[in-house]
Structure formats: C-alpha cells, structure tokens
C-alpha cells in the first residue's frame, strides 16, 4: 500500500502515558472513514460530556483523507488523540495500539464506521462499575446488537457464526461481532494477542477468570464508506481462529485465588 505523503512521527506508545489519568479512554479503529470520522468524534464527546475521557482514534494506514479530517476535529476536541499505523495491520492490532497508548484504567471501544452508537458508552460503563462493586473480578460490559441494520446475507452469516462459536466456546455471548464494549485495561493486557482476537474477547476474558456482563445496544446503518470484510473472507479466517481459541481454552489452568503471605 502506498504511504501517505507528509511527515510521519514515530510514537513510543508506552512512553506517551502521562501522569494525568482520565476516567475513561475511548478507542475507535479507522480505515478510510473520512466521511464519518468527524461526526463520530463529535458524538463520542457529546455522549461523554459528564465523564472525564480521552478519545483515541487509530488510523490503520488509511489512503483517503481520514487523518486530515481528524486533525481538523482535534482543534475542536482537544481530548482527541490520533495514532497512525505506517502499514495496515487490521482491526485487532489497531485496538491493541489504542489500549497500549490509553491512560485510563477503563477502556471503551467501538467500531470506527459509525454503526455503533456512542450514546451507549455511559450506560455500559455504569453497568460495569455496578458489577465490579458486586464482584471485583468482573472485567467487561459487552454490547449485543438489537435490530441490526445490515444486509440479510450479513445477518444470516453472523447468526450462523455466533451459533457455532457459542456451542464450541461456551462464552455466554450472543453477539461477539458487536464492537461496543467497555473493559478493564489491565484485564485486556493479560490476553494473548493474535489477529482477529477482537471477535473472541468474551471467551479470552473468561479464560483469565474474569466475569462479563452483557447489555443490549442499538445498531445503525452505515452512512459513509464501505465494509472492510466480506462473508467469505470472514468465514475463511473464522474457522482457523476458532480452532486456535479452543486450543487456548483447553490449555488454560487456573491457580484459583492467589495470596501473598505476610
């Protein structure tokens, strides 16, 4: 893929963590989303107007004007941080880039295409905080899409994939394809990284002994850009990834509660 013209700044992500710690870091990966990037940032900022937050957009080597649009949005929303991949690395890597750079203890993530409604983020965050108060080992509040605004073929493929995954992984999730989630940064960083891991976060989180709560969320039709996946392409990698996650679950061993002796 051709590199964009202009200066490229190398970012030491872990060195960028500052002393000031927001309550919530919001991460959205983007690839060629110039048409909707500014609106998504605006919606996130409006939804979190009463929560101290930062917005981290990870541009996964876009070839359109996504970065230009985001730089203009940063003049209006100083809480916006723009991280740019030199090479396209996929959604899971973009999410990981954002998590590594995040300053908050809790992370909200959503897809960068605008189909996830940022208005649900505060509710997911509050649900997670309530569950953490009851059970400190709860680590994630995950959205499950209601009234999906996708093509019939895409919805059929998603239902089939979710059914197979539930039977084989028993992760309790009815819709792992929903990008809208709030989770503990520390819990995420315990997970093994691999491409497409974002589709298996509930199973991986539970593998580490954490609890998850699920909440219904709305879904919106795509207004800008184009989908980065096809049903065939998604199916080809899903089978391989599913076998890998099943292996990871089978090889997990829990030590139970760990205590330090005085």
Describe the structure.
Helices cover 36% and strands 17% of the residues. The chain has 262 residues and is an alpha/beta fold. It has a single domain, classed as Spore Coat Polysaccharide Biosynthesis Protein SpsA, Chain A (Alpha-Beta Complex). It has a seven-stranded mixed beta sheet, with helices on both faces. The longest helix has 20 residues, at 231-250. The chain is globular, with a radius of gyration of 18 Å. The chain starts with 23 loop residues before the first strand and ends in a 12-residue tail after the last helix. The model is unreliable at 1-17 (pLDDT under 50).
What key phrases describe this protein's structure?
disordered N terminus, 36% helix, transmembrane helix, globular, Spore Coat Polysaccharide Biosynthesis Protein SpsA, Chain A, Glycosyltransferase_2, seven-stranded mixed sheet, Glycosyltransferase family 2 protein, alpha/beta, transmembrane, 262 residues, transferase
Secondary structural class: alpha/beta
Number of helices: 8
Number of strands: 7
Q: CATH homologous superfamily name?
A: Spore Coat Polysaccharide Biosynthesis Protein SpsA, Chain A
Q: How would you spell out the order of helices and strands?
A: EHEHEHEHEHEHHEH
- How many whole angstroms does the radius of gyration measure? 18 Å
Distance between the termini: 57 Å
Helix content: 25-40%
Sheet-strand content, in percent, reads: 15-25%
Strand order of the largest sheet: 3-2-1-4-6-5-7
Major sheet attributes: 7 strands, mixed
CATH overall fold name: Spore Coat Polysaccharide Biosynthesis Protein SpsA, Chain A
- CATH architectural category: Alpha-Beta Complex
Organism: Hyphococcus lacteus
Domain Glycosyltransferase 2-like: 25-188
InterPro entries: Glyco_trans_2-like (IPR001173), Glycosyltransferase_2 (IPR050256), Nucleotide-diphossugar_trans (IPR029044)
Protein name: Glycosyltransferase family 2 protein
């Amino acid at each position: 893929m051709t590199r964009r013209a202009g200066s490229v700044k190398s970012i030491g992500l872990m060195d960028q963590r500052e002393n000031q710690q927001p309550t919530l870091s919001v991460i959205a990966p983007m690839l060629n989303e110039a048409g909707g990037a500014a609106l998504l940032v605006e919606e996130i900022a409006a939804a979190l107007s009463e929560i101290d937050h930062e917005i981290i957009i990870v541009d996964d080597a876009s070839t359109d004007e996504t970065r230009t649009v985001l730089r203009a949005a940063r003049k209006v929303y100083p809480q916006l941080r723009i991280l740019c991949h030199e090479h396209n690395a996929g959604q899971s890597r973009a999410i990981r880039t954002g998590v590594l750079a995040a300053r908050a203890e809790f992370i909200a993530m959503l897809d960068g295409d605008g189909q996830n409604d940022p208005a649900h983020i505060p509710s997911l965050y509050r649900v997670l905080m309530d569950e953490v108060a009851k059970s400190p080992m709860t680590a994630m509040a995950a959205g499950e899409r209601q009234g999906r605004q996708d093509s019939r073929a895409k919805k059929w493929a998603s239902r089939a994939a979710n059914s197979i995954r539930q039977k084989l992984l028993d992760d309790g999730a009815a819709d792992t394809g929903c990008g809208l989630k709030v989770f503990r940064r520390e819990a995420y960083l315990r997970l093994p990284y691999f491409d497409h891991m974002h589709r298996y976060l509930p199973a991986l989180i539970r593998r580490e002994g954490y609890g998850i709560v699920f909440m219904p969320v709305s879904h919106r039709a795509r207004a800008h850009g184009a989908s980065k996946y096809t049903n065939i392409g998604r199916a080809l990698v899903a089978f391989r990834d599913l076998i890998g996650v099943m292996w990871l679950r089978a090889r997990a061993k829990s030590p139970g509660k760990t205590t330090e002796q005085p």
